[in-house]
Amino acid sequence: MSDALPPNSGFRTTGRSRRGEPWVWLTAAGLAIGVIMALGLFLLILLKGTASFWPRPIDVMEVRVAEGATEKIAGFVTQESTRSEPDGTEHREIQVFRGNKDIRPEAFVFIDEANIASRSRPEDLMWVERMEYGPGIIEPVALETPEGRIEAADPSFHDKLDAVIERSEQAREEILDIERHQIGRISRELEKHERAERSGEKTAQELAGRRAELQASFEKLQAQSGAIHDKLKETKLVGRTVDGADVSYTSDVLVRTFMPNAAGFFDRLGEALSRAGAFLSEDPREANTEGGVFPAIFGTVVMTLAMSFFVTPFGVIAAIYLREYASQGLMVQFVRISVNNLAGVPSIVFGVFGLAFFVYTVGGTVDQWFFADKLPTPTYGTPGILWASLTLALLTLPVVIVATEEALAAVPRGVREAALACGASKWQTIQRVVLPASLPGILTGVILAMARGAGEVAPLMLVGVVKLAPSLPIDSIAPFVHPERKFMHLGFHIYDLGFQSPDAEAAKPIVYATALLLIVVVVTLNLSAILIRNKLKKRFAVSSF
User: Fold this and answer.
1) pTM as predicted
2) 42-54, pLDDT tens digit by residue?
């Protein structure tokens, strides 16, 4: 049997019917290029972000600096480049991070490979992470404790040093608890008494006794914190740089130590995991170029969830009215056009609106009504995570409205008519039939809104995000939820490190690591919503048949 089409079948196989095929291949090529670019960017961030935690070996280079003179430089290579001279010759240069910013402010140095007389990797070099001045690279000499001096050659040296660092970490946590919680509690009570005195509720004489007790407790806690500090300074790590300078680090600044040149693969892997864990759980320090990003993670997640909490009901209610109740006339078309145009407004405009309306107008009114005793110091009349969440909810509202309308329109008409035929009212039909069937589509809109809101930075700079916010919006201090507080955000953290950091070179690894973390946070939030959506889709699946 012939496979040829009959002449009167209505199908033509002329060249005209094939004219669209190149465009099909062109769109496929465009899609492939887009996917490759996205994957390439993600792989770059993944490799750079994970590599920032991997401990690299420390090189000791003897560099010729003048005729017959050399200088020893210890550090690890961060990048290599080629520099061309006007005469056409090329020089290979390496950038070396040598740390020890307390001795030399320039932590990075460029070295011409032609000037390197010798290069080695001694196993006795130690990388020391400190609370300030960044990492130090030294040759350990001894550990001085109140019990005596332990030389670096002693077999128990490293165990003793690890024990000292562990005690130092516990002491820092104790100091933090004293300063942030116990002293903070006293400060809040003193502030409460001052407000009562200003408002006339109590006289100075009535408060004098309690104020004296609080002041005595405050001084006692300060003395306790100072005693812990002094005890930590009794123990010192003594070392020497490769160029012969003597250094000593008190135990209160020691965070961790590592011997990279003497470590094997699994030792390096354990150190990398330890650094990654610290990055996720610690507070930032040294102008955010050291330490972790836990406050930024917490602020990003809380702000995104709060934004979703605000935008979802308003978006769904607006969509229900536009699709189910409003007369489909000129006014509704105008509203839809306005909603679509609202999605194209630059995000910084929403930030300006949020600052003017939410912060100054709404927040100022709240302060006058409920926090007048604290004025002129504003409580809600200043940027905070509540206003940031509302601003981003307004920013992402069009996405939720459009997605919800499409989801409502996708519910088969027969399902609605069946519910009405059974005696249900219009609202009962919407509530019990249409909305459950539309939930997967509504959640799709919420997922898109979360993805956009979590990555926005420009409006947040006006309505609540800050460079450093050690106090979290949710903590163990009553009333436990503090919507008026400023917060940190991973996106702003990337911007701050990349463009505002005093040491941009040192911040590069953290920029890549934070960018990777932001992607992971957004993907995790989206995957959680997608899993919920898929479960709802299976539960409320409907058919038009």
Assistant:
1) 0.85
2) 898 888 888 888 8
Tokens of 475: 């903590």
pLDDT tens-digit map of 130-179: 888 888 888 998 998 888 888 888 888 888 999 989 999 988 888 888 88
Please tell me whether residues 348 and 367 are part of one structural domain. Answer: yes
Q: Are residues 514 and 397 in the same domain?
A: yes
Residues 263, 353, single domain; the answer is no
Let me know whether 141 and 104 are in one domain: no
Q: Is residue 317 domain-resident? A: yes
Q: Does some domain include residue 486?
A: yes
Domain that holds residue 67: 59-128
> Over the Cα atoms of the chain, what is R_g?
32
Q: How many CB atoms within 10 Å of residue 407?
A: 23
Distance of CA 507 to the CA centre of its chain: 14
For residue 8, what pLDDT band results from cuts at 50, 70 and 90? low
Is residue 485 within 8 A of residue 382, CB to CB? The reply is no
Helix axes 21-51, 504-539, angle to 10 degrees: 120
Angle between the 265-281 and 294-320 helix axes, to the nearest 10 degrees? 60
Report yes or no on 42 lying in a domain.
no
Amino acid at 120: S
* 354-363 tens-digit pLDDT: 999 999 999 9
- Report DSSP state, residue 378: -
Number of structural domains the chain divides into: 3
Residue 442: CB atoms within 10 A of its CB come to 23
